[in-house]
Amino acid sequence: MYNVNSIQAAPNVIVIPALSKEEISISKRRQKRVAAYCRVSTDQEEQQNSYQTQIAYYTDYINSKPEWCMAGIYADEGISGTQTKKRTQFNRMIKRCKQKKIDLILCKSISRFARNTVDCLEYIRQLRSLGIGVMFEKENIDTLNMTSEFIIALYGSFAQAESESISKNITWGIEKQFREGKVRYQMNNVLGYRMGSDGKPYIIEKEAQIVRRIYDLFLEGMSLERIADIMESEGARRRNGRSDWQKNNVRSILNNEKYVGDAILQKSYTTDCITHKRSINYGDKAKYLVHDCHDAIIDRDTYNRAQQEIAKRSSVIKRSDKTKTDHGKYSSIYALSELLICGECGSSYRRVTWNVHGKKSIVWRCINRLDHGTRYCKDSPSIHEDKLHAAIAKAMNKVYTGDSEFMSIVDQNIESVLSEADEIGQAISKMESRIKEIEKQRDNLIELVTIGAMDIEASDGKFKALKDEESYLRQQILQLKEQAKTSDDLRHTLSLISEELKRYGDSIIEYDDIAVRKVIDCIKVMSKTKIIISFKGGFEMEADIEP
Question: I need a surface site. Which of 115, 136, 495, 499 has the fewest CB within 10 A?
Answer without folding.
Answer: 499
